[in-house]
Amino acid sequence: MSCLMVERCGAVTFKRSEQNAIQVCMLADYRLSTGHAGVLLAERRGSYPLIDLRILKSGTQQGEVESGTRRKVKRLLSFQRYCNNSRLLRGLVPHTPGSLHFLDDDYLGQAAHMLSKVGTWNFDIFLFDRLTNGNSLVTLMCHLFNVYGLIHHFQLDMVKLHRFLGMVQEDYHSQNPYHNAVHAADVTQAMYCYLREPKLAEQLSPLDVFLGLMAAAAHDVDHPGVSQPFLIKTRHHLASLYQNTSVLESHHWRSTVGMLRESGLLSHLPADMSQDMEQQLGSLILATDISRQNEFLITFRDHLENQDLDLQLASHRHFMLQIALKCADICNPCRVWELSRQWSERVCEEFYRQGDLERKFELEISPLCNQQADSVPAIQIGFISYIVEPLFEEWLRFTEPSLLSQTMMTHLHKNKARWSLLQYTHASDQQTHSQAEEPGPEGRGREGEEIP
Ligand SMILES: [Zn+2]
């Protein structure tokens, strides 16, 4: 299966013969997996993040592991073919921009109506995704590019733009409960709201806006649904490729660069300009690495304390784009409860799936991934307290006076209080449950008191 271990960007530097071998292998693999011998997905991409099964211990005998387990692990982690299959089954031909033709006019009308309010904070991205038949990211990006006049400004080819956005959307894994194309669309919508903040909007150039939206749309592309520590301990090829540092973020960026080059979206621009855009996209996407949170928070605080942010400077605007993208990426707890709760449950579901996989293969279960020990409310309270609140407090300071920031902080505090209540209820339920399982009168009295 080594032929499937292809980094999109790496393909650019491959020798021709290696490329051909890979394409033949990928095509054969696709045909085997679908039975659609006549459907050619020569552009099929994806990292195929395979686990090295040799290091995954199993309680069962080696022989039993080979067939069933290997297949199951591959099914869990080799997503792209299933993603493409599911889209085919739903009547969507991959990379065909005209897939909206399948939609009823009523749905398109409602989607268009929603787009007229795309700058509002209670925008329901789940509903929008349903109304666009799973094309929320492409539809949203095309709309925002039109709003800002980016197509005209950068003289973009519409066919190439659709092709690029279609590839990005396709390369998100629809099987991931959280890191899927709807999350990307949600982050893009939030980014749009932040780009409109008066403190920022007045200073941003068309290039800043273009990069901000592109980075938001592609920031998690081809996410495998497992964390970096998981990739490292299973000796995933991406971990060694990126030397165990910002593994996922580097992959998201390099995949994006590969898609930009494959689509030719920027091919009409001078080489130094398109290279600079690729580098800036990398700097933005790499900033979403949550392990670098403190580094960015400290710099942001220092700027605010010293009041030395000069948005006339391209470097300072770039820094603020990094901060805006980081905020957009973790803004779920700042949304209205009904939307926020859905994201919280989805991200925990993704954590638990990783935990189940780790348990199954007798690997150490990663923090927050143990469904028996880590409840959704507890995970959310920790996430809000240590990650979200500190960043949004500084964002509030930067954007002041901002109605949006105040609204977000109100939601954040309400949601945290709600999770605290749910945690209390959860803890009470657990206690009642454990008491019910404890020995009867001969061992313990009421409320856990020892009987002398
Ligand atoms: Zn993200």
Q: What do these coordinates show?
A:
Residues 103-426 form the PDEase domain. AMP binds at residues 179-183, 220, 329, 380. Belongs to the cyclic nucleotide phosphodiesterase family. PDE7 subfamily. With 452 residues, the chain is mostly helical. The chain is 63% helix and 0% strand. It has helices at 10-13, 16-34, 62-77, 80-89, 105-115, 125-131, 136-147, 150-153, 158-171, 181-195, 198-201, 206-218, 228-233, 237-241, 247-263, 271-286, 293-306, 314-329, 337-360, 376-399, 403-437. The N and C termini lie far apart (66 Å). The model is unreliable at 1-55, 57-101 and 440-452 (pLDDT under 50). It binds zinc ion (ZN).
Tell me briefly what this model is.
Residues 441-452 have a biased composition (Basic and acidic residues). By secondary structure, this protein is mostly helical.
